[in-house]
Design brief:
five-stranded parallel beta sheet; Rossmann fold; 5 strands; single chain; about 220 residues; 2 domains; alpha/beta
Length: about 220
């Protein structure tokens, strides 16, 4: 959805009913862990990756468009998207990546906005892994939270959860925005280097801060 389309749809309203925070960070930085901690403290969480998965389940119209563009071999035996196979393709082929984004991103953005507006939580976190790369949702969010950690830790965590080799993880990191460019966008930073106790202390402090920043009617 373009900025003009967003305006035509009535977004943003003249006064936002809540605080909306973009959460971003490199692969393996711990965005999902941080978001889960905020959710436990009463925040709403809207995850663009989860929404993308919703649109690529069996029977979803977007899946037919993906199969028509990329071929039926990218549909798994169960009828859903073969994510790992398509991920490899779009990582290596910029045109394929742009075509996939053209199919999914307008759908995802519309649903993100719907869920933000429907939330009655005091504030909403929107997980946007590629916020720095795409520039999307700038009109939706009031603050940017970057989850940051040492790059060696990013590699270790991603290898552990994905089974990818170190060179594969580093290739993904190289294709993403640099750590410095993400941090340059940050209003808030959470460092995720020293375990859950340290992480929880930072989340507690920001939860209090965000509640103070919620617009008062």
């Amino acid at each position: 959805m373009s900025r003009s389309q967003s305006a035509a749809a009535g977004w943003p309203p003249s006064r936002s009913p809540r605080l909306v925070v973009a959460v971003t960070g490199g692969i393996g930085s711990g965005k999902s862990t941080v978001a889960a901690m905020f959710r436990e403290r009463g925040a709403a969480v809207v995850d663009t990756d989860v929404i993308a998965e919703e649109f690529t389940r069996p029977g979803e119209p977007a899946l037919d468009r993906i199969a028509a563009r990329f071929g039926p071999e990218y549909i798994a035996a169960g009828g859903g998207l073969d994510r790992s196979k398509l991920r490899r393709l779009v990582f290596e082929d910029a045109r394929a990546r742009a075509d996939l984004e053209a199919i999914l991103h307008p759908l995802i953005e519309t649903r993100v906005r719907e869920r933000v507006l429907a939330s009655d939580a005091p504030y909403v976190l929107v997980l946007i892994p590629l916020f720095a790369e795409t520039g999307a949702y700038r009109d939706l969010v009031q603050r940017v939270l970057v989850v940051d950690c040492d790059e060696a830790l990013q590699v270790q965590r991603t290898m552990r959860r994905s089974g990818l080799a170190a060179d594969e993880v580093r290739a993904i990191m190289a294709a993403q925005a640099s750590r410095a460019s993400r941090l340059a966008l940050a209003d808030d930073v959470i460092r995720n280097d020293d375990g859950l106790k340290q992480l929880a202390a930072q989340v507690n402090a920001l939860d209090l801060r965000y509640r103070e920043l919620v617009p008062r009617n």
